[in-house]
Design a protein that fits this description.
This protein has one domain: Porin (Beta Barrel), CATH 2.40.160. With 325 residues, the protein is of the alpha+beta class. It has an 8-stranded antiparallel β-barrel. The chain has 6 helices and 15 strands.
Length: 325
C-alpha cells in the first residue's frame, strides 16, 4: 500500500509528465475560414481513432494515471502549485464490468472532467510542386495549467440509447496557443449545452458518445478594444477615422469588421470513447476528440478550426429527490 508521501510524489511526477508538449510544424500561410463546422480534412471518426493510437493518451496514460482516491488523499497545500488541479482522475487497473441504466431511478453523469493533451489548428500548408493543402498543425500552449474542464454535470437518460445533456459545472476555459509562425490563436475551450448520444444501453469499455455543443464568444459584450469600440458600450467607431466615410461603402468595408462588434456563438462537436469502467463506483474514463472554432475578436477576424485531443472521465450516479435538471 502507498504511503501518503509516496502517493504525493507519484502524483506530482505524473502531473509534470502530462503537461502538453507540442512540436513545431511548418510555418503556415494566412487563411480565411467561416463560422461553420464543415467536415473538411480530418473527420471526427479519423481523429478519435488517431487519439486512441497516440501513446500519450494510452501507453503513458496507464502508467501515470491519477485515481480519484489519490486525489482525495491530498490536501490543498499538497496540490497547490503542482499542476494536479489541472488533472483529470482516471480508472486504475483493468476495466471492471459495465454501468447499467434502469427505469427505476433517474441518473446523471457527475464530475465530468476533460483534460486536453494536444491542441492543433487547421492551416494551409505548402507541399511540393506548389500544392497547398489544409492540415491540422501542432501548436505551442501559451496558457497556464487552467484549461481543464471539471465538475460538469447533467442528466443521463435512456432514449433508445443513452443521452447525456450538459447542464452546469466549469464548462468553459479560455486558452491560447501559438502557431509555428508565431501567430497566437485564442479560443474558448468548452462543452456548453453538450448533447452527447450513444446507441448503447450501458457504459462499458468501448462505448462511444458523440454530440454537439455551443461555443460562446471569447469576449463579452462589455469588452472594449484599444480604440474604445465594443458590442454594447464604447464608441461606434474609432476616433480620427470619420474621413473614411468620404470613400463611401468601399472605404467603410475596410473597417466594418473592426467597427461593428458582435457577440458570436458558434457550434462545436465532440466524440469520446470509454476505455475503463469501475462498475462498483460508477466511475469511467477514456479519451476524447473535440473540434470547434477559435475566437473571431468580436467579428473582426476569420475564425480557425481547433482540434483538441485529451482524456475524459466521469461518474454515473443517481439523482436524489432534491436534484432537478
Amino acid at each position: 500500500m502507498f504511503t501518503r508521501a509516496a502517493v504525493f510524489t507519484a502524483a506530482v511526477a505524473s502531473a509534470a509528465a502530462f503537461q502538453p508538449v507540442l512540436r513545431a510544424g511548418v510555418a503556415p500561410r494566412s487563411s480565411k475560414a467561416t463560422c461553420t463546422m464543415q467536415a473538411e480534412g480530418q473527420g471526427m471518426k479519423q481523429a478519435i481513432a488517431g487519439a486512441i493510437a497516440v501513446p500519450l493518451l494510452l501507453g503513458a496514460q496507464a502508467a501515470n494515471a491519477i485515481s480519484v482516491d489519490q486525489v482525495r488523499s491530498l490536501t490543498y497545500e499538497e496540490v497547490k502549485g503542482t499542476g494536479l488541479a489541472n488533472r483529470c482522475p482516471e480508472i486504475a487497473g483493468a476495466s471492471q464490468g459495465e454501468i447499467s441504466i434502469n427505469d427505476k431511478n433517474k441518473f446523471k453523469i457527475a464530475n465530468l472532467c476533460l483534460e486536453p493533451k494536444s491542441f492543433q489548428i487547421e492551416q494551409e500548408v505548402s507541399k511540393r510542386k506548389g500544392a497547398v493543402t489544409k492540415e491540422f498543425v501542432d501548436t505551442k500552449l501559451m496558457t497556464r495549467a487552467t484549461y481543464t474542464l471539471a465538475g460538469v454535470n447533467g442528466p443521463l437518460e435512456d432514449k433508445g440509447g443513452l443521452t447525456f445533456t450538459e447542464k452546469d459545472g466549469i464548462d468553459y476555459a479560455p486558452a491560447t496557443v501559438q502557431l509555428p509562425g508565431g501567430e497566437r490563436v485564442p479560443f474558448m475551450f468548452t462543452v456548453k449545452e453538450l448533447v452527447a448520444k450513444t446507441s448503447d444501453k450501458s457504459i462499458s469499455a468501448g462505448t462511444e458518445f458523440s454530440g454537439t455543443f455551443r461555443v460562446p464568444s471569447y469576449r463579452s459584450g462589455l469588452f472594449l478594444d484599444p480604440k474604445g469600440r465594443g458590442g454594447t458600450t464604447g464608441y461606434d467607431m474609432a476616433q480620427a477615422l470619420p474621413g473614411m466615410e468620404a470613400d463611401g461603402a468601399e472605404g467603410q468595408a475596410e473597417l466594418a469588421g473592426e467597427t461593428n462588434k458582435v457577440f458570436q456563438v458558434t457550434d462545436g462537436s465532440i466524440e469520446f470513447a470509454v476505455n475503463k469502467v469501475d462498475e462498483s463506483s460508477g466511475e469511467w474514463s477514456g479519451v476524447f476528440v473535440s473540434e470547434q472554432l477559435s475566437d473571431t475578436d468580436m467579428g473582426s477576424k476569420a475564425p480557425k478550426k481547433v482540434l483538441i485531443k485529451g482524456i475524459i472521465s466521469g461518474k454515473v450516479d443517481t439523482l436524489d429527490g432534491s436534484e432537478e435538471y
